[in-house]
Amino acid sequence: MLIRNKSQKVTIQESFEILSAFKINGKRYSARRYTPDYCFYDGDELTKVVDVKGGDATLTTDARLRMLLFMIRYKIPVTIARYDYHTGLFTEEQL
Asked: Could you tell me the superkingdom of the organism this chain comes from (predicted)?
């Protein structure tokens, strides 16, 4: 569907705060960030984020946790794009 008068934008490696900085017992902990590979905007609204992975080894437990925290905070699903070296194609799946 084509929507006129709406600007569409794609950004690469845009960083999002997933956990604000905080202090406990005088010790300061820095903010935590998640940086997806691609972000798609419809006007000013973020509509889709894509994280490209080459295989299971690059989708670590830490990466999965950052993606889940992003989805909780921004209410946007993360799409995993996996490259299949045998076919030369990407497949998409939602985390």
From this structure: Bacteria
Q: Which helix (H) or strand (E) holds 83?
A: strand 78-84
Enclosing domain of residue 83: 8-94
Give the single-character DSSP code of 85.
Answer: T
| CATH number, domain containing residue 12 | 3.90.320.10
Of the two residues 7 and 47, the one the predictor is more confident about is 47
Whole-prediction pTM value? 0.81
Strand partners, 79: 50, 94
